[in-house]
TrEMBL record:
Keyword Ribosomal protein: yes
Origin: domain of life: Eukaryota
Provenance organism: Aptenodytes patagonicus
Encoding gene (name): MRPS31
Any one GO molecular-function label of the UniProt entry: structural constituent of ribosome
Protein name: Small ribosomal subunit protein mS31
Amino acid sequence: KPLSPELVEAASAVASFLPLNKKQTESELIAQLRRHEETTDKQKKGGTINIRNVISEMAIKRQSPAQRGVRISNRISLELDEDGQRIKPERLSPQSFDSRSLKVGRRLNIFTKASTETENALKTVSSPTIWDLEFAKEIAAITAQPPRNGFEEMIQWTKEGILWEFPIDNEAGMEDDAEFHEHIFLEKHLEDFPKQGPIRHFMELVICGLSKNPYLSVKQKIEHIEWFQKYFEEKKELLQEI
């Protein structure tokens, strides 16, 4: 997404106003604006990948109808005698049932007995490492396919944060101790900037764009303004040294 021509022109005017390397100053200002746009697009699309979503998308092997039919036919054939007559199951009295425990009796030694160390190792589940997270991201990127129908599209939008997740949380996306006016009226953060001139005009355009941006938090907007404040202060100190 290209930057606003008016904003680029204001950045060029600021670079011309400072008697230093104009091209470098202009490129640094535009680079910061582009980083801000990338952050906005990332939070708008909700590009975070969750391992839980990757696991939930894994395919589960199911029996085909043909395999299911073979099992049913085999079960039916076992219930017929030699003459083709169906064998009636005998009624078992409650006394015929004998409860037994699985842990008593002679071992057949078919399976090896698990050691206590293995059992303790299975009990302690370690948290996923950064390599596991990167591997999950690669799997999600490889298996990502466009939605085939409207239902899959709505599922994808829900994962990206475009649609509400259920059950709906009315406070989702709201910041703590952040009022609506703090997102809109950002002029109070320009007190340390010049009252007039190209720098003032440039910063007014910046806060105008920030006030219209619903995808950034108040903290991110203030940090964006403070970056320009520190940048111009460093340039001012450099000019005084010269």
